[in-house]
Amino acid sequence: MRERTDPRLLRSREAMVAAATELLTESGLEAVTHQAVAARAGVGRATVYRHWPGLLDLRLAALESGMPPLPPMPEELRTATGGDPRTELVHRLSVLAERWDDEQAGAVLAAILGGSRHDEGMRRLRESLLEQIADALRPAVAAAVARGQLRSDVTPETFAMATAGPLFFERFLAGNRLGRDTVETVVDAALRAWA
Amino acid sequence: MRERTDPRLLRSREAMVAAATELLTESGLEAVTHQAVAARAGVGRATVYRHWPGLLDLRLAALESGMPPLPPMPEELRTATGGDPRTELVHRLSVLAERWDDEQAGAVLAAILGGSRHDEGMRRLRESLLEQIADALRPAVAAAVARGQLRSDVTPETFAMATAGPLFFERFLAGNRLGRDTVETVVDAALRAWA
DNA sequence: CCACTATGAGTCATCTTGTCTCATAATGGT
DNA sequence: ACCATTATGAGACAAGATGACTCATAGTGG
């Protein structure tokens, strides 16, 4: 039985995923087709069909590679915050904001929002994105609740809505880049609102 | 010179726009093509090309018809609020939330978010959407500032970020319908945060 | 009643899509 | 070093989509 170790398979797969991600970033999900990916990856068209028989499979691969998990909070930074929830919240949301500042984020998010109503795979991606954000905020929200800085009924999901929501709005509806000042403003507003 | 009054022109145009909007709602922007619109509208393929020679023109027409201007605040309701900013804010945002609850809203917004990076027309649509929201909140925000319920540096744009942002997040990222309770929660949080 | 014009049907060349075959060469086990 | 395995690129192919065109017809405005 074949393992997943054939270098040819990995090489071409890597090239195709890279090409698909580029196309997604540059021209949106519509531009991700077997033909376009093959051409850009320098690969036979049939090869793309072999790896992802369906168009949705191919596009899902592009989207997945476009939204890797958020890097975890570095331990040295966590201790450096002195356990201050606000500092940690600002840091976690800055990581998110930085990612959303990236060019490809808009393409990925728009595709997920639009596609999740029709496609199960995209719905999964949307939910995992939501979970990613909530998980990133979970420890700091818990700490803030423990210290009485947030009401005890504030969940990570609620706090995500209160912070990631405005950031999303500012970035993708207003079209503005997200600086650390914006993140701090949003975090402070949420802390005031839910104290 | 021909006026825009030829009934044939208006009839077929109306049928095509309706068909395009349906396709957009049901299957996303990608499904809006000259051929599909012609088939659904019961119209010749050439006719669709005559009205919108380019694919982007056609899709823009579908998007525009999918985001008509928000209805203005009814005068009787405005007086009924007794000039209370919170009540008016809740009302205005409930109108927005109701629209976003609609099935087609997700398709329209996702298309605009994704397309506004590449297409000038979609960028215009995105900006007009933003303006729509800010304008809807403008009088109530001004009133709240005048009464000292909001800091004097809070603009309609800021308040839109603080309220429409979370609503957008809740509706399209978390996938939850927006009830009046959600709107009230969000408005109250924003009023606390920016008092 | 008539000149006008939007329309539907159709044709046509070109491109895209999905499936298939086959020779080739890289690969892993022996 | 050898060989059976297998992923690949090139290409053929039918079916369908695309965009531009022509033309007879019928609804329209004067």
Quick structural gist:
Chain A has helices at 7-27, 34-41, 45-51, 55-66, 75-80, 85-101, 103-115, 120-146, 156-173, 180-193.
Describe this structure in words.
The structure is a homodimer of 195-residue chains. Chain A is mainly α. Helix content of chain A is 73%, strand content 0%. In chain A, helix 1 (7-27) packs across helix 2 (34-41), helix 6 packs antiparallel against helix 8 (120-146) and helix 6 packs parallel to helix 9 (156-173). The termini of chain A are far apart. The relative contact order of chain A is 0.11. The interface between A and B is large, with 42 and 41 residues. The structure holds a DNA duplex (30 and 30 nucleotides).
Report the helical percentage of chain A.
over 70%
Q: Report the sheet-strand fraction of chain A.
A: under 5%
Shape of chain A: elongated
SS-based structural class of chain A? mainly alpha
